[in-house]
């Protein structure tokens, strides 16, 4: 049996290599006389520079690796990543190319594993009118005007989380707990799945297995992470299908039923209506994006505040002033969040120095001229978030943590600060993440002081995460402030 399994693996790997080589040769472009290809090399067939990039990300030197390319080739260069000929672009103009436009030149391009796990109709895969329609449906719920009514619910989730996982403890691991918190918020506010239900417990289990294989090698063999991920993704599909049916029946009984993201998507009018398959795939996308991004940002803020006493003191003062204005048990409001200006600048500066998204890929739908070079149709375009963030011509002394940089956001050139993307392609969950981050930070800093247990190393997997989960020792800050 073992020899049969080994032979099957070899056949799958060999077949994959052949297909990739064929794809590379099919996409090979011989430039004409007018526009040259960018400088650089496609490297070894199939492998290209993929392993170099992944190793640099794991050792948290991904930006340095790209900076070396820029010094050698300039802001535009060709390479091969994950089996595809690729053009790496960098700078304000590059970011504008990626995040602006009508989608006729560049389209989102995800790896096969992402596409297979999250579904082919998620927002990262849709193009043109379909992308606009689905994005518009999601933004209608996630925009600031709609989120005002959910601040109280999010407040209650955070307070219950603090009571359950922080109070009475002497040491906690921040990142795992923040992932628990963000998933609880997603379940309650976005999906309307309340605490204590068996469905919620199953959803947590299946989701954890699902995300394990998103960035795995897409060979669907038994007992692999990718196989478990595909299986769990199908189980998540079944749960969301049941939720859709229940929300639809509820709306038929009562058009004024409580709203969550699924209910809002089900109840779109005919001009914006999206299919059940689109709802399912985009719910999985929201689960994945919302779970990782916010939890990482909150963790990084806690880490940086421990090393910035004056910044931490300013955040604590701002948040305690808000806490003192509230009566016992009273939840935060949208107006309270508007007073957290300095705290949000701290979060912005954290994301400048440690953007949660390293970068991404687009696919050239046609030949594109950029900076005097040709990006051929069918090639990948690779962009990185942190390079303009750490450009001293844009942000003086970029290595220094300075939240005052964001006192006047108009002074930051467009398409230079892009932790959530930019322009028409800004993340639709940006405002939701902002509320989530501010409410969590409010309760942590007003109820606890903390110290690092040890020096924390970070790696990218693919987000910046503390390798030990950020263990901290905690003590109650103010016993007179109750949850």
TrEMBL record:
One of its GO terms (cellular component) is membrane. GO terms for biological process: sterol metabolic process. The chain crosses the membrane at residues 6-24. Its cofactor is heme. It is a single-pass membrane protein. Heme binds at residue 427. InterPro entries: Cyt_P450, Cyt_P450_CS, Cyt_P450_E_grp-I, Cyt_P450_sf. GO terms for molecular function: heme binding; iron ion binding; monooxygenase activity; oxidoreductase activity, acting on paired donors, with incorporation or reduction of molecular oxygen. Pfam families: p450. The keyword Acyltransferase does not apply. Keywords: Heme, Iron, Membrane, Metal-binding, Monooxygenase, Oxidoreductase, Transmembrane, Transmembrane helix. It is found in: Membrane. Belongs to the cytochrome P450 family. This is Cytochrome P450.
């Amino acid at each position: 049996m073992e020899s049969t399994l080994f032979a099957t693996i070899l056949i799958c790997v060999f077949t994959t290599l052949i297909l990739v080589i064929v794809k590379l040769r099919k996409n090979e472009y011989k430039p004409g006389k007018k526009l040259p290809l960018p400088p650089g090399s496609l490297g070894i067939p199939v492998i290209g520079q993929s392993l170099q990039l992944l190793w640099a990300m794991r050792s948290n030197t991904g930006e340095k690796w790209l900076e070396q390319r820029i010094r050698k080739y300039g802001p535009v260069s060709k390479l091969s990543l994950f089996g595809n000929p690729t053009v790496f672009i960098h700078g304000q103009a590059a970011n504008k190319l990626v995040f602006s436009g009508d989608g006729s030149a560049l389209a989102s391009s995800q790896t096969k594993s992402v596409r297979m796990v999250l579904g082919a109709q998620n927002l990262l895969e849709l193009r043109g009118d379909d992308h606009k329609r689905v994005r518009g449906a999601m933004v209608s719920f996630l925009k600031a005007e709609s989120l005002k009514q959910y601040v109280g619910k999010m407040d209650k989730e955070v307070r219950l989380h603090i009571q359950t996982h922080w109070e009475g403890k002497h040491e906690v691991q921040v990142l795992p707990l923040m992932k628990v918190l963000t998933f609880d918020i997603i379940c309650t506010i976005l999906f309307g799945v309340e605490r204590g239900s068996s469905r919620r417990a199953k959803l947590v289990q299946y989701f954890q297995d699902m995300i394990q294989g998103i960035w795995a090698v897409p060979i669907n063999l038994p007992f692999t992470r990718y196989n478990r991920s595909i299986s769990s993704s199908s189980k998540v599909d079944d749960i969301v299908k049941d939720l859709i049916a229940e929300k639809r029946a509820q709306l038929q009984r009562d058009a004024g039923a409580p709203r969550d993201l699924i209910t809002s998507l089900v109840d779109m009018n005919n001009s914006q209506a999206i299919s059940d398959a689109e709802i399912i795939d985009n719910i999985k996308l929201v689960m994945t994006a919302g779970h990782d991004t916010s939890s990482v940002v909150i963790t990084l803020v806690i880490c940086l505040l421990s090393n910035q006493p004056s910044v931490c003191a300013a955040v604590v003062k701002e948040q305690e002033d808000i806490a003192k204005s509230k009566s016992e048990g009273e939840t935060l409001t949208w107006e309270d969040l508007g007073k957290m200006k300095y705290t949000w600048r701290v979060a912005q500066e954290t994301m400048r120095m440690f953007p949660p998204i390293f970068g991404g890929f687009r696919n050239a739908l046609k030949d594109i001229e950029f900076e005097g070079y040709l990006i051929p149709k069918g090639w990948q375009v690779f962009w990185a978030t942190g390079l303009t963030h750490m450009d001293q011509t844009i942000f003086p002394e970029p290595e220094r943590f300075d939240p005052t940089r964001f006192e006047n956001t108009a002074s930051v050139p467009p398409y230079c600060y892009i932790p959530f993307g930019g322009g028409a392609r800004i993340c639709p969950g940006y405002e939701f993440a902002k509320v989530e981050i501010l409410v969590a930070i409010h309760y942590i800093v007003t109820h606890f002081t903390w110290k690092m247990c040890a020096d924390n190393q970070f790696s990218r997997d693919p987000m910046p995460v503390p390798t030990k989960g950020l263990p901290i020792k905690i003590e109650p800050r103010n016993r007179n402030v109750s949850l």
